[in-house]
Specification:
The chain is of the alpha/beta class. The protein has ten helices and twelve strands.
């Protein structure tokens, strides 16, 4: 077991806009228990959901959980103050919410709060077995968590890793951030759902299945999407130059076909540039194992 996963027993909560996923890690880093519940909106809903998940984890392990709990949430997090703001997906807007202290009171244990992509990066670092790791989250949006020399890099305003808001297409769609042609308008779950709408299965799974079956329109959409992901990795490679790059997020549930297509696009980007090709970005890329609760595990590592 990777040393970064091992240690004392640990508890992590990944609080998302649709679900809250909780895990208990054993001393060897194995997942002893995990619970998933739908997240109720608003501050009161988030607290109630976290409480239900924590109680269910205690029931599953058969013992009180008294260790500090790590919590990952979307939005801007003031780590020092334990405050959350502008977490639109959670129904938390406007004034700063002292979520760390509210959760500590609700759960009856100490809590440490962090952005969800950042905590996922901690688990990605453990999976990759490296101290310089970029975790690329391709979910509803597109963002990266940065671990440099074994430490999270948040940035002066908590905006480090907001790779999705790098504009790449002046003639592209308007992004939710107010800019035009951002990577997130091409390489995100939200963008993919617009480009390949479906009702019977997740859009990413439907798109990759159709492309594999030879649907020309699906191949075009898939290739543009994977070009966008590869372009994000190229920017991160040229600015951070990490030892390892790990793909995760909801779209990564496609699994190895996603990694293979992104690798193909990375190699295509390097065909006209010996310099870019020499960086070997494709060889540094891995993907989170399917169904692995990377953000919840990362939150547990944070709490530990």
């Amino acid at each position: 077991m990777n040393a970064a996963l091992a240690g004392t027993r640990a508890v992590g909560l990944d609080i998302g806009g649709t679900k809250t996923h909780g895990v208990v890690l054993g001393e060897d880093g194995e997942i002893l228990a995990q619970v998933r519940e739908s997240t109720l909106p608003g501050a009161d809903g988030v607290l109630a959901t976290a409480g239900r998940v924590f109680e269910a984890l205690q029931d599953a392990t058969g013992a009180p959980l008294t260790c500090r709990v790590g919590v990952g949430v979307p939005g801007l997090v003031d780590v020092e103050r334990g405050v959350l703001r502008h977490a639109v997906n959670l129904g938390v807007n406007g004034d700063d919410l002292p979520l760390r202290d509210l959760l500590a009171e609700r759960l009856g244990v100490a809590v440490v709060l962090e952005n969800d992509v950042n905590v996922a990066a901690l688990a990605a670092r453990a999976l990759a077995g490296a101290d310089d790791v970029v975790y690329v989250s391709v979910g509803t949006g597109l963002a990266a968590g940065l671990v440099i020399d074994g430490r999270l890099r948040r940035g002066e305003h908590g905006a480090a890793g907001e790779i999705g808001h790098v504009p790449v297409d002046p003639a592209g769609s308007q992004c939710g951030c107010g800019q035009t042609g951002c990577l997130e308008t091409i390489a995100s779950g939200g963008a993919l759902a617009k480009a390949w709408p479906t009702t019977d299965q997740p859009p990413a799974a439907a798109l990759f299945a159709a492309a594999a079956a030879g649907d020309h329109a699906a191949v075009v959409v898939r290739d543009r999407f994977c070009w966008g992901v590869a372009s994000a990795i190229r920017v991160l490679g040229l600015t951070i130059d990490p030892e390892r790059i790990v793909l995760g997020g909801g779209v990564s549930e496609v699994g190895e076909p996603l990694r293979e297509e992104v690798v193909r696009q990375l190699r295509a980007l390097g065909e006209g540039s010996p310099f870019l090709a020499s960086l070997g970005l494709a060889e540094r890329l891995s993907i989170v194992p399917r169904h692995y609760p990377v953000a919840a595990v990362g939150a547990a590592i944070l709490g530990r």
